[in-house]
Amino acid sequence: RRKEEDPVDRSRRIPRPDCPSMAKNNQAYLLVGVAALATALALYYFSSPSSRRDEKSTASTSKSKDTGITPQKSNVRSSESSTATASTKSSSGQDDDGSKALHRRIEEIDRAGKTLFKEKKYMQAAETFTEALDLIAERPKSSDENKSSSSLTRQVITLTNNRSAMYEKASHPDLALSDCDAVLALDPAHSKARTRRLRILEAQNRHAEALVEVCALQLKYMNDNRDKLRLGLPPSGQPPVPQSKIEELVTKIQPEELSRAKQKMEESLTDRPLPSTYTITQLLKSFSGYNKWMGEAAKGGKCDKFTSQIEDLLSVPRKNLVAHADNEATKATLLLSRGKRHAYEKDFVSAVADFEAAYAIVQDSDGVDQDDHDEMKKGIINAMGDDHYARLLEWSGLCSHLRYKLKEALVCYELCSELEPDNTEILVKRAGVKMDGSNHDEAEALFDEALKLNPSASDALLHRANLRMLQQRVDDSKDDLEMCIRLYPNNLLARLRLATVYMAKQDMDGAKRMLDQAEEYDPESTEIHCYRGEIKFTQGDVQEAKSYFLKAIACDAYNPTPYVNQSLVIMNTPPAPGQMPDFATAISLLETAIEKDPMFHTAYVQLGQMKLSMATDLTKAKEVVELYDKGLTYCRTPEELLDICSMRILTVAQIEAAHSLKFETLNMQ
Fold first, then answer.
1. Model pTM?
2. Nearest-CA neighbor of 391 among 359, 348, 369?
3. Which tops the pLDDT comparison, 191 or 267?
4. N-terminal to C-terminal alpha carbon distance within the chain
5. What burial letters (b/e) apply to 268-290, b meaning 16+ CB within 10 Å?
6. What mean pLDDT value characterizes the chain?
7. Is the Cβ–Cβ distance between 215 and 197 less than 8 Å?
């Protein structure tokens, strides 16, 4: 996750990889999309180790031993079946002799077809089944057409399914698919036709369509067991498709979907909103220069002062290059100062607008087409002075990073490094951009360079520890954080990060000790209460966990983390017998989290799963796809894109599967 944007560590939010117990408890609801099962009770059953089903499937691989021939319970009888019985069932004693003769003839043809199948004469068998289907199509109407038609429809389904199996055996997949479609048009729940369709589509690399068939098989299975699910009982029999098959298909669909999502994300970068006020504040606090610029902004005066000075500037013609450059440099410097004051007041939207306007002036954006553009740009930079220009580059780099414009951010930071090669904070910020671009080796090299220049650089130690957690180097991360705390005992973020490390090592006593020490420096820290709540939940103390999350919200209502944590606590608390979890409250909490931070990707994933499981009709289910589309536009990392893309793929497949089954809802409650 984007650790460099959120120094409190987004991956720490429930569910997170650094706390196995919490992750295990949340797995039941994480599987809502992955298993294509739209009911919480069913998911709880499937994710329970004590009741895990054997993942061997009879339905989904090309190695299936299914012959494709419909069992003899169909209306077309085998040679051992009684003609009298078949005649009685087909006509109920009321059909005329012609109808009886038709059924006898169909049975004879069916037996002949099965004999040819056993002899591996697949196309001849298919032609035989076609002969029987033609007889049915050309039959004269009986005296009791309704009953006769119903009986013959079942025979049509059986014969068409058997012919489809022959086409598949004879390597005519398109003909086989056509017959599968014909069967499913008459009987949408026909498992053999869906299984064959899945097998053929997968062999043709039509993975998205194959996933729809997987979801249809799963949804039918859940629908067949819905009464048991309502009572909290395990479903009967084995699941029709193993989890591994679902994951395999999703993995094959992902590249195309990720490409589409990345393109859409890049198109939205220009208009992308900033992260939440809380997230930006936490990021700024993680850098060593925070107190310095905050002090300067506090003493520099209020925004009105700078606004008045900007308005008092006279317009200087461009033809007077030196005077114009000096005037533009003054305006850019005032915008920089006002931007820092806006940041001091946590008005980050206005701050970013000022920084971007100042940077545009320095780049002479309005004069790009002028002959004197390069000279004017150089004149503005020189008039501004190295220190002001460096700070503008630094803030402009941060603005681009916040909008996830990584290339633009690197350009600004690298120019700043050229002006100030010994500035370790700029090296740390460059490393943060590299981390967000998944260039971990380059990020580590920059951290090492910063620490070589200044071994006591707290931000370098803090953010390198974060990188090492991403790399699963828990002990190395612990070493960096302990060094940071030895150098700066009052570094709250380092103690919070170290608590995360202890939780990853399942050392809850160590985590609690670190939180106790952190609380001495900031007893009203929203993050400390969040950590305590997570520890309590891990230990099974649900009420205490809820209490801490409520305290976290009270300390800072703009922190989205406790809303998500509180929601997941509700969903992972076993309800009273015969009742469901409080979905409404859980959904409301997740919606609040997104309202506080539109970029909180975990909230989108969890909210989508819950809404899908509660959708009363397919229109509501489609709203989940729209939710994921919104979440995709806010993704910042490949991991976030992958998460939401996977959920979207499965949701779309489930909706299409429900349509094909003629279901009106995915809700099996």
1. 0.75
2. 359
3. 191
4. 34
5. beeebebbbbbbbbbbbebbbbe
6. 84
7. no
20, two tokens: 């196995």
User: How many residues does this entry show for the chain?
Assistant: 669
Q: Quick check: 168 pLDDT over 70?
A: yes
Residue recorded with tokens 């994710």: 47
For residue 326 the two structure tokens come to 């000096």
How buried is 510 (Cβ within 10 angstroms: 0-12 exposed, 13-18 middle, 19+ buried)?
A: middle
Tens digit of pLDDT for each residue in 498-530?
A: 999 999 899 999 999 999 999 999 999 999 999
- Which structure tokens are listed for 444? 């580590």
The span from the CA of 91 to the CA of 143, in Å, is 10
Helix ranges (DSSP H) in 2-93? 20-34, 40-47, 83-91
Distance of CA 66 to the CA centre of its chain: 35
Helix (H, G, I), strand (E, B) or coil at 172: coil
Contact in structure between 332 and 362 (CB atoms under 8 Å): yes
Give CA–CA dist 324/317, Å, rounded: 6
Contact between 135 and 105 under an 8 Å Cβ cutoff? The reply is yes
Locus of tokens 């803090």: 462
Q: What is the pLDDT of residue 148?
A: 58
- Whether residue 351 contacts residue 343, with contact meaning beta carbons closer than 8 Å, is answered with yes
Give 365's DSSP letter.
G
pLDDT at position 493 over 90: yes
Tokens of 14: 């429930």
Q: DSSP string of 134-169?
A: HHHHTPPPPTTHHHHHHHHHHHHHHHHHHHHHHHHH
Indicate the burial class of 73 (C-beta count within 10 angstroms; 0-12, 13-18, 19 or more): exposed
Of the listed ranges 267-276, 432-441, 594-603, 604-613, the one predicted with least confidence = 267-276
**Which residue's structure tokens are 């087409």?**
369
Helix H, strand E, coil C: the string for 337-360 is HHHHHHHHCCCHHHHHHHHHHHHH
Could you tell me where the beta strands, DSSP code E, fall in 291-379? none
Compute the distance between CA of residue 464 and CA of residue 469 in angstroms, rounded to an integer. 9
Residues 196, 184: contact at Cβ < 8 Å? no
Closest CA to 196 of 183, 187, 185, 208: 183
Backbone phi and psi for residue 279, each to the nearest 5 degrees, phi listed first:
-65, -45
Most confident of 47-51, 82-86, 504-508, 569-573: 504-508
